[in-house]
Amino acid sequence: MGVPEEEQAIVYIQAELVKIGIQMDIQKLSLAAHSEKLAKHQLPFTYNFWIPYVPDPVYHLYWNFRTAETGCCNYLSYSNSEMDRIIDQGLVELDSEVRKSLVERAQDILIEDPPQIAIYHPTWNLAMQSAIAGYYYWPDTLLRFEYMKPVK
After folding, report:
1. Are 24 and 14 spatial neighbours (Cβ–Cβ below 8 Å)?
2. Residue 78 three-state SS
3. Residue 134 within any structural domain of the chain
């Protein structure tokens, strides 16, 4: 781990789970060990975050909820045949209204059968010298340096 904010969040989660009778032991893993166990789907309860690089709901659904036993990114091995069908259809559907209804049904499934719980999304602060221009915020929170230039 090694990220103080994440370690604090995990301790907070542990304290809150105790209040409802769930004992959770925290096992610190290096990033490499954590990544390896994630890829092998060996962490049934883990702290992780997801950044959808493409602003498309079906893209997000595919990587996180399409049946997969190993690899990226359905780390909890969630499997729901209706969800798989919706994702497969959504990947090729061109009619925006049909696609919207597919995504809405997928959301209903995830409410009825939640494989994970989104607790929060971290906030990153960016400090920059006034001699730099061209920073733009992107929803995936990744920096695009190609737009940044020195102020003349």
Report:
1. yes
2. coil
3. no
Residues spanned by the domain of 26: 1-48
Reading the chain (152 residues) residue by residue, the pLDDT tens digits are: 567 888 888 899 999 999 999 999 998 888 899 889 888 888 878 877 777 778 899 999 999 999 977 667 888 889 999 999 999 999 999 999 999 999 999 999 999 999 888 777 767 778 888 999 998 888 777 788 899 999 98
Mind giving me the DSSP string for the chain? ---HHHHHHHHHHHHHHHHTT---------HHHHHHHHHTT--SS-------SSS-HHHHHHHHHS--SSSSS-TT----HHHHHHHHHHHH---HHHHHHHHHHHHHHHHHS-S--------------TTEE-----TT----GGG-EE--
Domain count for the chain: 1
Residue whose C-alpha is closest to residue 61's, from 90, 23, 41: 90
Residue 99 belongs to a domain? no
Q: Is 78 a member of any domain? A: no
Is 25 contained in some domain? yes
